[in-house]
Design a protein that fits this description.
- Helices cover 45% and strands 15% of the residues.
- It is of the alpha/beta class and 507 residues long.
- Among the domains are: 77 residues, no CATH class; 137 residues, Protein-Tyrosine Phosphatase, Chain A (Alpha-Beta Complex).
- The chain has an eight-stranded mixed β-sheet with strand order 4-3-2-5-1-6-7-8, with helices on both faces.
- Strand 10 and strand 11 form a beta hairpin.
- The longest helix is centred in the N-terminal third of the chain and has 20 residues.
């Protein structure tokens, strides 16, 4: 490791940062209707935390220390402008002995959307690997460990690789602050740049890059020349940041479209499709819509779905996806259409009908109607559209079940609850609390269910601890048979996923 990594930052840099952040947060707290919110969100300790960031990161030498450092960063601090982020991105590319001197990211597939983008990334990764391409994948969020965000050839990076990337980035930030002392990357920005290093060092042929919650202003959008952009289903989520209408959110997601770069998108909502088509047409992009007419579900079994993809170019016959989630047929169709474009227009000659079908069959994506234990399923649906897709899949199951639910308070969970209460096969709704300040109030969630359930056939139970909620669900399953489903939040999914082995031992 370079000696500069362990060096203390220059005193002038520290003083400049202290002045910069103090002024920044003081200004926010002093003005506007949200001044009080800012005073609560950014107390003096946070200002000092930002100032001390440069110092604290110098001491990191293990994975646990690196992860703790990243998790301690304020999540809702000022986001850097695209110009600021691009400046650092270009610095990294151009610096002496920079990673781009050693190798490139290969060709980039850029993916945005509200629902399904993680699954599409996973399908693409699996197909690329089956076709003989060395593949990197950057995703957000993670479920259990931060390392999940970086996969090379389908395997998340090791703790040692994570620390190496963290330390490399710390070096580069320290160097860059000599030019731009005010530069302070956010949590997501740091992870993105770590991913850049991981994939470059891994000498990947293809990098699959998933955006965060946005598109136009997303950190990943500093990548200038993807070979294809993909936009999955657009829904009403993160409305405080992206807009309150489908059109506004679609415009933000469509911000990843680049001049002349082919676009593949989900054609489920006309309002979103019109925005995406308009942006693609304006930038001279070849546009490929995937609608419900482009795939057909033939059969749903207990362990898989059998479906067909309609193609103008190839005859795939029937495909198998190892999931019972019918919404994955659309995500698979989007991935297949993307691969067709890559083969036809971008020179990806290794894609064959056989490798595409096998890639679809081999794909596994954690916590997407994922059977984590016999008869126990986790689904990461966390907004109205996601819950609607979950409900559609569950209606095809004849078995009675227990449903464990929790949600973040910034979600429109009244509509989610209404959809779930329409499931006649659910006998017990078990409500629990996500152990974070963002978790919705337990009693408010319960009140929503009490207004919607069928009191003759359905019951409600409330548990503050997730482990107690799951224990109840598993005890009912053991006594009466049926299934257990956990849904409502990726936070909830991650906690259950991380501790499922312990629960299995108890039951």
């Amino acid at each position: 490791m370079a000696d500069s990594f362990y060096a203390q930052p220059h005193a002038n840099v520290k003083n400049h940062m202290r002045k910069f952040f103090t002024q920044k947060y003081a200004a926010k707290a002093a003005h506007g209707a949200r001044g009080e919110q800012w005073r609560r969100a950014f107390p003096c300790s946070i200002v000092q935390q930002e100032v001390n960031t440069v110092v604290r990161e110098q001491a990191v030498c293990s994975y646990s220390e690196a992860e703790r450092f990243l998790e301690a960063l304020p999540r809702f601090t000022r986001k850097n402008s695209m110009e600021e982020t691009r400046g650092f991105y270009e610095y990294v590319q151009g610096c002496e002995n920079g990673i781009y001197r050693e190798c490139s990211l290969g060709r980039v597939i850029h993916v945005a959307g509200t629902n399904g983008k993680g699954s599409v990334c996973a399908f693409l990764q699996s197909i690329c690997r089956e076709s003989g391409y060395r593949t990197g994948m950057f995703i957000s969020p993670h479920l259990v460990t931060t390392r999940e965000r970086f996969c090379v050839d389908g395997v998340m990076i090791s703790e040692e690789e994570f620390v190496e990337a963290f330390c490399w980035l710390s070096d580069k930030i320290t160097e860059y602050r000599r030019i731009r002392p005010e530069y302070c990357p956010t949590y997501f920005e740091r992870l993105f740049f770590m991913g850049i290093y991981v994939f470059a060092r891994g000498k990947v042929d293809i990098t699959i890059l998933e955006t965060g919650l946005g598109g136009r202003l997303d950190t990943t959008n500093v990548v200038k020349n993807p070979v294809v952009t993909v936009i999955t289903e657009i829904g009403l989520d993160h409305t405080a940041y992206l807009g309150e209408t489908i059109q506004e959110i679609a415009a933000e997601k469509a911000g990843i479209i680049k001049p002349g770069v082919p676009v593949v998108f989900s054609d489920r909502k006309r309002a979103a499709s019109d925005v995406i088509r308009g942006k693609a047409e304006k930038l001279g992009c070849e546009c490929h819509a995937v609608s419900e007419n482009d795939y057909k579900i033939n059969e749903i079994q207990k362990k898989y779905i059998d479906f067909s993809v309609v193609s103008r170019y190839y005859d795939y016959g029937r495909m198998i996806a190892r999931t019972t989630a019918c919404y994955q047929a659309e995500n698979a169709a989007v991935a297949v259409r993307t691969c067709e474009i890559l083969k036809r227009a971008c020179g990806f000659d290794r894609f064959t009908v056989e490798s595409i079908k096998e890639g679809i069959r081999q794909m596994h994506w954690a916590c997407r109607m994922d059977e984590v234990s016999p008869g126990v399923f986790i689904d990461g649906a966390h907004n109205e559209d996601g819950i609607a897709a979950f409900v559609q899949s569950l209606k095809l199951s004849p078995e009675h079940c227990v449903l464990i639910f929790s949600v973040l308070r910034d979600k429109q969970y009244d509509k989610m609850i209404e959809l779930l209460c329409g499931l006649s096969m659910v006998t017990d709704f078990v409500i629990t609390q996500i152990p974070t300040q963002r978790g919705a109030n337990l009693e408010e969630i319960r009140a929503g269910f009490e207004q919607k359930i069928d009191r003759h056939t359905q019951r409600i139970y409330t548990y503050e601890k997730i482990e107690d909620a799951l224990a109840y669900g598993l005890s009912v399953k053991k006594r009466d048979g049926g299934r257990v489903y956990i849904v409502g939040s990726l936070y909830l999914a991650g906690i259950v996923e991380a501790n499922m082995e312990d629960y299995d031992d108890r039951f």
